[in-house]
Here is the input.
Amino acid sequence: MDTDNSCSGKFRRGGLKTKSLLRLTGLLILLTGAGWAMQRLPPPGVLDSMVALPAGSEAPASEFEYVFSRLAHYSPGFSLSEDGQAWATDYPKADRQFLQGLLRYTAIQGRREEQVLRPMDSELYGFPFLYAVEVGYMQLTDEEATRLREYLLRGGFLLVDDFHGTQEWDRFQRQIRKVFPDREIVDVDASDPVFHCFFDIHELFQVPGLQYLYSGRKYEKDGYEARYAGIYDDNGRIMVMINFNVDLGDAWEWADLPEYPEQYTSMAYRLGVNYIVYAMTH
Here is the structure.
């Protein structure tokens, strides 16, 4: 797996302090040797398992140059969680297991524990990267949409993931239009710097969720084809990166499961690392 250093620009608060990143070539060694490796398939619908945090993980975010941050959004009608908490899908195992690879094989000095943020939290602007899942159920107030727009225009980066099919796309579009009523969602070409700022990713394909092991289908609902799309600012920087009909969260969460195909885990980690490096440098 090749890397390059095509990402450029100033490092912002919460970002990298150095461009000298170590290669992520040992990822599979890490995953194979993970202490929580599973021996058989979990039953469908199993609750997300936890990954224990190492000592010192309770340190405040201000002590680190990077903290993985997950966006908590209200999601009425989401049947798999209580109180409309679709944002917590795959949480916290996916976040922590992804961080194991990110922090071990890059020079990012990051915390090993994720940070959950709501749109109106006062500390939002200190975190230049946000990860949001199940955005097909997200419902933003006008105040939250205004806050997210300001955050993104100031240099923030929002990655949305794990939503599938026509109905979820339509619901997501209605919400993101509250944030950017005057900006279009466009496909992000494989030549875009976001796919080459750490790993060189030349081919984009669908990363399925755990259900693939039971159904044999890479898609969910009528989300047959993966779409990698985005919303750009006036300077050509991606502000919102959209992984539609793609489930990076499951690929991170079940990277320790031998039955889950390595090609999807590898793709999910490479994309995740690239998105974070891009967010820190653009």
The radius of gyration is 17 Å.
